[in-house]
């Protein structure tokens, strides 16, 4: 490569071929993403607050709280009223997803971001567990070639 002269200092070399290929492709992908957001996601309720939440009534929004009309708890329902109680439930996929996400946020609030961090002992043991697990993960490749055999000779 001695026949190429080095470029002058502070010269920016930008290859034009990748730009000619990747810029139109990235712009097309961006336009598809904008189209998908405007035509599909924007017409759904993904990422929005619950419609039944009212800031003046409920205060700050809690992801783990159900803002619908309260119903009788399952443990308080009489045996004869169980079919009617089940019929009142919303059985759509969206309702199952919302219930799942409420429980995820509830667990997150209880164990990862709420008052748990005031308990120093739990936090210390979590860090010890995370450190131990990461060390095991890093060093586990040493034991992959270990083979348990029937005869040890």
Automatic annotation (TrEMBL):
Keywords: ATP synthesis, CF(0), Hydrogen ion transport, Ion transport, Membrane, Mitochondrion, Transport
PANTHER family in alphabetical order: ATP SYNTHASE F CHAIN, MITOCHONDRIAL-RELATED, ATP SYNTHASE SUBUNIT F, MITOCHONDRIAL-RELATED
Signal peptide range: none
Record-level Gene Ontology MF annotations: proton-transporting ATP synthase activity, rotational mechanism
Protein's organism: Caenorhabditis japonica
GO biological process, one term: proton motive force-driven mitochondrial ATP synthesis
Pfam entry (one): WRW
The keyword Ligase is assigned to this record: no
Subcellular location: Mitochondrion membrane
Recorded superkingdom: Eukaryota
Name of the protein in its database record: ATP synthase subunit f, mitochondrial
Any single Gene Ontology cellular-component annotation: mitochondrial membrane
Principal location class: mitochondrion
Protein family per UniProt: Belongs to the ATPase F chain family.
